[in-house]
Amino acid sequence: MENQLWLMCAVSTGKRKMPKYRYFFIIVSLVSCVSPSNKFASKALQYGFDSMEINSDMFVHRIYFNQLVSVKTSSTTLHVYLDGDGTPWVRSKWIAKDPTARNSLILRLMHLDKTPSLLLGRPCYYGLNQGSNCENKYWASHRYSSEVVTSMAYVLNTWLEKNKYKELVFIGYSGGGVLAILMANKINITTKVVTIAANLDIRAWSEFHGYKTLKNSLNPAEEAVLYADIQQIHFAGGDDKVVPAFIIKKYAQSQKTQGILNFLEKGMCVAGKRNGQKYLILLINSSIFTVVLAYFLLISSLLLGKNILKNRSCTGVSIPVSQCFLLRCHL
To answer: In whole angstroms, what is the distance from residue 292 CA to residue 171 CA?
Structure first.
């Protein structure tokens, strides 16, 4: 496929002198012929990440991991990142040939992490879209199917057999948060699941947008609750129009081991503890970008700190939300 793209782009211009403006279009054409997977791999290399491929019975997966994994530090905790759905559709009309994300946000998140971390790729993502069994349904209607979840869990467990860790934290962005919830009970050492703007009820999410329900995809809201000893941390944007906060709220309320003491209006944050389970839910008066900013502020203490979540909130405090994070949630 890459060879075909190159042949399409490497059109000879001959010796005739060309107007300057044409060079601009040639450069744009060349840039557009770099695949999303290649751009993603280039960004991962820029951050100093290594990669490898691991096979399951059905798919091949690519994982990226930071140097703290490579050098075998004394840390007993592993952070496993799961990216969003990427670009399953082109202009909302055609299924993409390469579903890899055009935006490498997940790599930037992992780059900030000072813990051994890896990015677990989905089937057919990150340059593997031409592999066997890579029907495009696996990044469209079947993106959260049992085949996808089982394969990802198998690959991760296989990797963990050779790389010994005592605790594992899932960090899922958007659709990656869906997969994090669906995989958490399948990995014995899972201790925490962090989701960022995740559509945790895909039926409600589809109905909200007027989309067809994702056929043969598992729905976290309809699956068994997570084990009682797995801490859940969910980030939501109060003004997020893609994954409305009420969907995340509804899912959180369904988790018997989690519970919610107070779910505040947008622009507020709440941290608490119930039935021995710590939790944090953020409702932010902004878009997902502010959610990610909040995540930057909180990641080190939330994932590495001890007993940092207390029964406190920003109720009645008339200060900017950014200060709310620092003064009340970043304990």
So the answer is: 12
Looking at the structure, tell me whether residues 26 and 50 fall in a common domain: no
Amino acid at 107: L
Q: Name residues of the chain where pLDDT drops below 70.
A: 1-33, 237-239, 256-331
Taking CA atoms, 75 is separated from 91, 165, 236, in Å, by 44, 8, 29
Show the domain range for 241.
36-329
Per-residue pLDDT tens for 123-149? 999 999 998 899 999 999 999 999 999
Q: pLDDT digits over 150-170, tens only?
A: 999 999 999 999 998 999 999
Q: Supply the CATH number for residue 280's domain.
A: 3.40.50.1820
Give the strand pairing for 268-274 and 312-313.
antiparallel
The DSSP call for residue 93 is T
User: Do residues 249 and 204 touch, judged by C-beta distance below 8 A?
Assistant: no
Residues 288, 304, single domain; the answer is: yes
CA pair distance 133, 150, nearest whole angstrom: 14
